[in-house]
Amino acid sequence: MQTLGEQGVLVEATVLVSQDKKNVIRVLHVDDDPSLQDITKLMLLDLDSSFEIDSACCVYDAFKKLSTEHYDVVVSDYEMPQKDGLQFLIELRKQNNRIPFILFTGKGREELAIKALNLGADGYHNKQGSPETVYGELAHAIVQLVNQNRLKTELANGEVRFKQFFSNLPNAVAVYEAISNGEDFVFKDFNAAAEKIEKTSKADIIGKRVTEAFPGAKDFGILEIFKRVWKTGQYEYFSTALYQDKRDTGSWRENWIFKLPNGNVVAIYNDVTERVKTDLELKRTNEVLERVGEGIDAGLAVIGKDYRVVWANKRLMALGVAPNKKCHQTFNNSETICPDCGVKKIFEQNSALDVHEFKTLDSKGETIWIELRVTPFKDKNENVTAALELAIPITERKKAEQKIEQEAILRNTLLDNLPCTALILEKKTRKIVASNKIAQENGAFTGGICYETCAKRTGPCTFCLAPKLWATNETQSLEVEYEGKFYRGIWVPYNEDLYVHYIFDITEYKKNKAALLLSEEKFRKTLKKF
């Protein structure tokens, strides 16, 4: 079954049931084994955080909890003291309690499963097997049964809810009953909005054939749609069309037709005459837009308030944007309004400008990037009648940004794998632009000053060769002893504004070298004695 949603678009009736995945599902787990209760609770909560698990150790305890608490589903063991799972199920159903019931047992006999299902169990699951499979299937069954049960509950109240919906809907709604095996239809109900559009009263309509009350219905084409929907049960959208008869000299209608569970056909419709007039007014501006659109190196389109493309220049037409199709169908190949839609912000939030980037495929199937700039299109009374969308190609810019990003990742990867402190610095200021992990471990982060972070000084190091590099643009290096340690410093040009500074701690190398020299000297002296 389908009904009318936001923007007058038909959606499935299951939206009447909350589909928020965060909705709590309350599970009563009945089992005489406390350890299995704990394991089941941990496994189910790990699989789905929307579960809320309560436990009972026997059938008596379970009935006691059911009498005071609300649960969405019962998961019960078979073998338990006093009463088993099937006896529990029988008593539940005798009390006309239709809560979803799953028998969860280690007894894998086929006859037990058949018996449970015949007694009214909604599912049977064996505890034997890998925990991931067993509890994964159990969690899936719980969610599925609870959702089905909630839907049944909503549908049971559907008639009342439909009446409320019917009465308060601002759209015109007419309910029809099929006669002559679906060859004709009579009016069963007619809401206030329909009375206003048709300028007639419900009392004058109810019980009449469609063709009697509205002689132009057959030529209008809607009667054939009624027949198809009644036969197939599939809803249809009857796009904007002109209705005329002796009473109505001409008005534009838009219809959504679907079938109710009781077999009646419902038409929800709007008089869109004013919208059509507005579209015609917009189309008169096309000549001006054509001239403007051809003079810019970007796409340009006018989007109507029904999200249909009223006009598009050749640049956008080459990308597959077609007039009279909805913008989200052409830009994003979607039947629903795009996420973060700029046109929607113009129409619904009265935004003066919306700018966002958009990725799509061109007519050759190649990925392209577009910057969309959307502004309101107003009439002489300052009323927003459409949205003007400017599509600026930014593919080359995005490629350049991606290249820079990849180079940065590569540069940082190389820096992080060096066995030394490595810094990329601004010339003159010695400000850190990038640093590797070793440098960061010593406090040298982006934005800091080289000598303040690495040497813990208030001014440049006296031995620093950076100024010489700035002057010559040539690599510089030296070894220096600083605060009891030995270092090798290397300064390398990077580009016009930056240079790289490598700092190697060579203290151990120096010690080893000194020890080696001392050893060699002792060896020479020993040889000399001989």
Can you characterise this structure?
By secondary structure, the chain is of the alpha+beta class. The chain folds into four domains: 9-156, Response regulator (Rossmann fold, 3-Layer(aba) Sandwich); 165-271, 2-Layer Sandwich (Beta-Lactamase), CATH 3.30.450.20; 285-393, PAS domain (Beta-Lactamase); 407-510, 2-Layer Sandwich (Beta-Lactamase), CATH 3.30.450. 39% of the residues lie in helices and 27% in strands. The protein is built from 21 helices and 22 strands. The strands form five sheets. Strands 4-3-5-6-7 form a five-stranded parallel beta sheet, with helices on both faces. α1 (34-47) packs across α5. The longest helix has 26 residues, at 131-156.
Summarize the structure.
With 530 residues, the chain is of the alpha+beta class. 39% of the residues lie in helices and 27% in strands.
Fold blueprint:
Elements: E1 2-4, E2 10-12, E3 25-30, H1 34-47, E4 51-56, H2 59-68, E5 73-76, H3 85-94, E6 101-105, H4 110-118, E7 123-126, H5 131-156, H6 158-168, E8 172-179, E9 184-190, H7 192-198, H8 202-205, H9 210-213, H10 217-220, H11 222-232, E10 236-243, E11 251-259, E12 265-271, H12 273-283, H13 286-294, E13 299-304, E14 309-312, H14 314-317, H15 327-331, H16 342-348, E15 354-361, E16 367-378, E17 384-393, H17 395-416, E18 421-426, E19 432-435, H18 437-441, H19 450-453, H20 466-472, E20 476-482, E21 485-493, E22 498-505, H21 507-529
Helix pairs in contact: 1-5
Biggest sheet strand order reads: 4-3-5-6-7
So how many helices?
A: 21
Instruction: Provide the CATH topology of the largest domain.
Output: Rossmann fold
Strand content: 25-35%
What's the pLDDT, averaged over the residues? 85
Which residue ranges are poorly predicted, with pLDDT under 50 across at least 5 consecutive positions?
A: 1-22
Q: Kindly, what is the distance between the CA atoms of the first and last residues, rounded to a whole number of angstroms?
A: 109 Å
What is the CATH H-level superfamily of the largest domain? Response regulator
Q: What about the largest sheet? A: 5 strands, parallel
Helix content: 25-40%
| Backbone structural class | alpha+beta
